[in-house]
Write a structure and sequence with these properties.
Largest sheet: 8 strands, parallel, barrel
Number of helices: 13
Radius of gyration: 19 Å
Organism: Aquibium carbonis
Protein name: Methylenetetrahydrofolate reductase
CATH class: Alpha Beta
Keywords: Oxidoreductase
GO molecular function: oxidoreductase activity
Number of strands: 8
Distance between the termini: 25 Å
GO biological process, one term: tetrahydrofolate interconversion
Length: about 300
């Protein structure tokens, strides 16, 4: 008599594993200089061609940012440093940063306002950075902007989307009048449906920028809850809250299998969706995120071939 192991709720079936692997393939990942310094060999962790964002936290010297960018670029990875407008004093400082990065092989950037309450100078938004014309002047080919599927109360204090929607409409128009390749990189979420609903709403409003969905990589539950609270993650935090109430899962590391399986299924059923790829926030460590992502892609490829 044969016995078959039933898949657990967090283990996708074979067909779902193939979709999941295909969806995760080509992922990007975010790092900081201090965490990058702990990695001996990025080539042992990251597939060739992986886009690496370098987060610029207030207080990090630009020299450390550029040193990290140079190391990754030298290893052959496309590097996308953050440019947080509110910690850049003026256009002269902006141009200095752009040139420093360009000199180590960078030609793309994530433009964002930044989480600083009081701007350090005249630049206050990603739109200010784009309007400077300096990225185009110095040959930056790709510009990404931030997206907030569950809203951003720092921008829309009422919890709605008026200001962030208006900003995305402006950025859509910018993409149409320039040669820059653009995409939206989102805040991380723990549930697929809010992201899907947001993407559908943007498309209905005439926004065509591809969406790179932010996903928290494997981590301890307590770590994720801490970051989710600090970063203003919206209603999808309930996924973590429910998990915290289950003693069996409380001590197990969180993995993004469920949310990504749902997003992969949606993309497969709706190939015209703005949702394009996955961007990992390695809150539990770069190694944990890359090993999970690489194994997910490998397993998906095996399922696809048979």
């Amino acid at each position: 008599m044969a016995f078959f192991k039933q898949a657990s709720p967090e283990t996708p079936a074979a067909g779902s594993e193939a979709l999941l692997g295909s969806f995760v393939e080509g992922y990007s990942i975010e790092i900081m200089p201090r965490t990058a310094a702990k990695i001996d060999d990025f080539k042992a962790l990251l597939p060739g061609g992986t886009r690496v964002y370098i987060a610029h936290i207030e207080g990090t010297p630009i020299e450390e940012m550029v040193e990290t960018a140079a190391r990754l670029s030298g290893d052959g990875y496309p590097v996308m440093p953050h440019f947080p407008a509110r910690i850049i004093r003026d256009k002269a400082m902006l141009e200095d940063w752009i040139l420093r990065y360009r000199d180590v092989g960078v030609n793309q950037a994530l433009l964002l306002a930044g989480g600083v309450t009081n701007p350090h100078g005249e630049l206050t938004s990603s739109m200010d950075l784009m309007e400077s014309g300096l990225f185009d002047k110095h040959g930056y080919k790709r510009l990404h902007v931030a997206g907030h599927p569950e809203g951003n109360k720092d921008i829309d204090a009422d919890g709605f989307y008026k200001q962030v929607d208006s900003a995305l409409q402006w950025k859509q128009a910018f993409s149409e009048r320039t040669d820059a390749a653009m995409a939206i990189a989102t805040q991380f979420a723990f549930e697929a449906q809010p992201v899907i609903d947001w993407a559908n709403r943007l498309k209905a409003a005439g926004i065509a920028l591809p969406i790179h969905v932010g996903i928290a990589g494997p981590a301890k539950l307590q770590t994720l809850i801490k970051f989710a609270m600090a970063c203003g993650v919206g209603p999808s935090i309930r996924v973590l809250q429910r998990r915290a109430m289950d003693i069996r899962k409380l001590v197990m590391p969180y993995e993004p299998t469920d949310v990504l399986t749902d997003l992969a299924a949606h993309k497969a059923a709706n190939p015209g969706s703005l949702i394009e790829q996955v961007h990992f926030f390695p809150l539990g460590g770069i190694k944990a995120s890359t090993e999970w992502a690489n194994e997910t892609v490998r397993t998906g490829a095996l399922r696809k071939t048979g």
